[in-house]
Amino acid sequence: MGACQAFGSGSNPGRRTSLINMSETKDSLKKRFFYLIDFAISEYRNKNGNPYIKEYIELAFEISKKINYRVSKDVHLMVCKYCFSVRDSKNTKIRTITEIKNHKKQKYIKIHCLNCNNIKKINIK
């Protein structure tokens, strides 16, 4: 899928609502979500210089919102949902934290995005 197909071209290229066709089934939209995420991550790791990586991730998250799909922890470990950047060692701090709640130890991973200063806390079981 090229940049022109993914983001539309025409009188209003910034508008992408027509790209998410709700007549498609949820399964096909989920496949499209994972395809866009995987494609964006592979492009980032190959360092091809693709300027549309953030737009691919943003479009994938818009699809997940439209079909009411809960994004898995694996995706949140790889992608920031606020600034749509791919996480790596240059733009992310990762810490493990143990907290005591109700006399029970709970372990968490705190992921701090250095691009948008957002902190994501993920429970480890």
Topology summary:
Layout lengths: L2 H5 L18 H21 L6 H14 L6 H6 L13 E10 L2 E10 L5 E6 L1
Antiparallel strand pairs: 1-2, 2-3
Helix pairs in contact: 2-3
Question: Which key features would you list for this structure?
Answer:
125 residues; alpha+beta; three-stranded antiparallel sheet; 4 helices; globular; disordered N terminus
Write up this protein.
It is a single chain. The protein has 125 residues and is of the alpha+beta class. The chain has one domain (3-124). Helix content is 37%, strand content 21%. It has four helices and three strands. The chain has helices spanning 3-7, 26-46, 53-66, 73-78, and strands at 92-101, 104-113, 119-124. The protein has a three-stranded antiparallel sheet. The longest helix is centred in the first third of the chain and has 21 residues, at 26-46. It starts with a helix and ends with a strand. The model is unreliable at 1-5 (pLDDT under 50).
Task: Briefly say what this structure is.
The chain is an alpha+beta fold. The chain has helices at residues 3-7, 26-46, 53-66, 73-78, and strands spanning 92-101, 104-113, 119-124.
Distance between the termini: 38 Å
What structural class do helix, strand and pairing data support?
A: alpha+beta
Question: Average pLDDT value?
Answer: 84
Please compute the radius of gyration using only Cα atoms. Answer: 17 Å
Largest sheet: 3 strands, antiparallel
Number of strands: 3
- The poorly predicted ranges are 1-5
Estimate the strand proportion: 15-25%
